[in-house]
Design brief:
The complex is a heterodimer of chains A (115) and B (112). Chain A is mainly β and 115 residues long. Helix content of chain A is 0%, strand content 45%. Chain A has no helices and eleven strands. In chain A, the strands form three sheets. In chain A, strands 2-11-10-5-6 form a five-stranded mixed sheet, with no helix packed on it. The mean pLDDT of chain A is 91. Chain B has 112 residues and is mainly β. In chain B, the strands form two sheets. In chain B, strands 2, 4, 5, 6, 9, 10 and 11 form a seven-stranded mixed sheet that branches. In chain B, β9 and β10 form a beta hairpin. The N and C termini of chain B lie far apart (36 Å). The chains are: A mainly beta (115), B mainly beta (112). Chains A and B meet through β6 of A and β4 and β5 of B.
Chain lengths: 115, 112
C-alpha cells in the first residue's frame, strides 16, 4: 500500500514568513496527490491537489508541485498569516485493485504562525 | 448546504457499554469512510464503504463495526468499547474512493 513521510513539526513562524512543509510518498503506480488542512476544532478540508507529474496545485496562496522523480509534493506559501495556523496532512490517492478506497495520510504537521 | 454530520460530537462512556456514532451526508456520495485521529499517529482508517451494502476494513478495524444500509448513512458501532478506543473520530465522504471531499466535524470519544 501507499505510505507518506511528512516533515515533523511543530513548525513555528512569524507572520509573512515563507513556509515549506516537506512530503514524500511511496505509492503504487502514479497516484494523485493531496494536501489537507485541519483548523483547530474542525475536520479536515481538501486544500489542493495535483493529478499528474509536474502539475502544480494551488489554493489560498498555497502551492505544491508533483515531483515524480523525487516522489515529493512539498507544500509552500510565500507569506503566511496567523489564520494559516492549522495541521497540514499530505496524502496520495488510493492505489487500484484491492487497495482502492484506502486513503493513507501523513502524520500531519502542526503550523503555528505568530503575529 | 453540502455537509457531513456526526453525532454525538462529544461522548464520555464506560468500558463495555455499546455505542454508535452516526454519520450522514447529503451529497449523494458513493464513498464514505471512518478515521480515528490520535496524537503522534495521525489519521488512521477504520472502515470504508464504496457503496450501499459494500464495506471493507481499513488499517485499524479491530473493535469496530459499520453498516451501510442507505447511501447517506454510515454509522460506526463499538460493541464493547475499551479505553484504547479513546480518540477523535472523523467520518468523510466523496463521490468516489479517489479522494475525500468532505469531512465531518469530528466526535471526541472518551472511554473510562
Amino acid at each position: 500500500g501507499n505510505s507518506v513521510t511528512q516533515m515533523e513539526g511543530p513548525v513555528t513562524l512569524s507572520e509573512e514568513a515563507f513556509l515549506t512543509i516537506n512530503c514524500t510518498y511511496t505509492a503504487t503506480g502514479y497516484p494523485s496527490l493531496f494536501w489537507y488542512v485541519q483548523y483547530p476544532g474542525e475536520g479536515l478540508q481538501l486544500l489542493l491537489k495535483a493529478t499528474k507529474a509536474d502539475d502544480k496545485g494551488s489554493n489560498k496562496g498555497f502551492e505544491a508541485t508533483y515531483r515524480k522523480e523525487t516522489t515529493s509534493f512539498h507544500l509552500e506559501k510565500g507569506s503566511v498569516q496567523v489564520s494559516d495556523s492549522a495541521v497540514y496532512f499530505c496524502a496520495p490517492s488510493p492505489a487500484g485493485g484491492t487497495s482502492y478506497g484506502k486513503l493513507t495520510f501523513g502524520q500531519g504537521t502542526i503550523l503555528t504562525v505568530h503575529p | 448546504e453540502a455537509q457531513v454530520t456526526q453525532n454525538p460530537r462529544y461522548l464520555i462512556t464506560v468500558t463495555g457499554k455499546k455505542l454508535t456514532v452516526t454519520c450522514s451526508q447529503n451529497m449523494n456520495h458513493e464513498y464514505m469512510s471512518w478515521y480515528r485521529q490520535d496524537p503522534g499517529l495521525g489519521l488512521r482508517q477504520i472502515y470504508y464503504s464504496m457503496n450501499v451494502e459494500v464495506t471493507d476494513k481499513g488499517d485499524v478495524p479491530e473493535g469496530y463495526k459499520v453498516s451501510r444500509k442507505e447511501k447517506r448513512n454510515f454509522p460506526l458501532i463499538l460493541e464493547s468499547p475499551s479505553p484504547n478506543q479513546t480518540s477523535l473520530y472523523f467520518c468523510a465522504s466523496s463521490p468516489s474512493g479517489f479522494d475525500l471531499s468532505y469531512f465531518g466535524p469530528g466526535t471526541r470519544l472518551t472511554v473510562l
